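Re: Re: ligand-bound prediction request (bumping)

Still looking for help on this. To restate: I need the protein modeled with uracil bound, output as structure tokens. Inputs repeated here so nobody has to scroll up.
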Amino acid sequence: MTAHDAISIIRAKRDGAELSDEQIDWAINAFTHDVMAGEQMAALAMAIVWRGMNRRETARWTRAMIDSGRRLDFTDLPRPTVDKHSTGGIGDKITLPLAPLVAACGAAVPQLSGRGLGHTGGTLDKLESIPGWRADLGPDRMREILTDPAVGAVVCAAGADLAPADKRLYALRDTTGTVESIPLIASSIMSKKIAEGTAALVLDVKVGSGAFMPTHAEAHALATTMVELGADAGVRTVALLTAMDTPLGRTAGNALEVAEAVEVLAGGGPADVVELTLALAREMVTLAGLDTDPADALADGRAMDHWRGMIHAQGGDPDAPLPSAAHTETLSAPTSGTLTRLDARAVGIAAWRLGAGRARQGDPVQSAAGVRLHATVGDQVTAGRPLFTLHTDTPHALPGALEALSEAIAISPQSPRHNPRGPLILDRVGDGRS
Ligand code: URA
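Reply:
Sorry for the wait, this slipped through. Here it is.
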């Protein structure tokens, strides 16, 4: 094919045709090597947003993105590998207790993760609030940590050679209004997860105001596509659909979330964080073929031991005090009653404005910034008592964060007949076969 074929590929998809394997391979390869111009790939992505891709096209697109870089291989490890991916939510610190918990159950967890962009925080940003902790590890060090029976879990930055086509394409989609496409989102996420070399994968697909996918139907369609892509690539994959209308736990912000994750590992922590951690851990352990209940490893302290080993292995000090913010401000409940709404997106935007997130790739984040919630949906609140504490090193950020939170809540003077929070785990997709 020649550079001119970019136009015929764009036209074909624009007019609703199926792309052949050769057309897909050529487009991804040409874009990665600057043969297909950014504006041409943007036009193709927009045609895909409108026309979609079928299962074969999406699987081929994913494979072409994996083949644009290096695929890690951990098949020779002495333990089964399993990872999880969340589509991102507010206060979603689940990886932090989950990875060491599943490692404590006998699996190896090789998680390559990203930094956050916009109002949902990234796992690496959270872990980087721990003094000394480093995200950049090579595959040899990853393998050493995964093989160490006292650790067995690693969470580190994806290197530049992991699905480089996706790195370019995601940056382009972000600036051309072409993120919102199930085949493009599914192939983007799964290309990175398949390339990281895990044998099994549990997906946490969020549904609700704080999520990518606001409706159950859209989240189900995304989950189904990702589970199929996993199966097509030989990675046993299951997805849980989980509620993200209200933040998970009582904190949103990097160091605040680490502290909450440590509470969970110590046997406490908010009930929703514990519930989701255990639900995902059970799925992961089952996919890994292990016959053990993760609740035991949480209760008897083995998960905490693996957390300490995991932080240590990446240069961090699990006993060092976490950073605390230079400024805090408390917002009180305006009336008394039952908290019936606490909008995840608004809390995410407030935490982001306080400095916990970044607007552009490469911006720094504040470790100590964020929001602590003193109540969650379904709780009784009292007028004048604290509802939120805002944390920041940059006090000029406070008015913008307070404004975001002003519309976040609803308080009902009557007790509702049903818990307004509803179930956390909404659905399950996939049978874990490959
Ligand atoms: N996350 C990704 O990695 N890719 C997408 O397309 C959307 C979310």
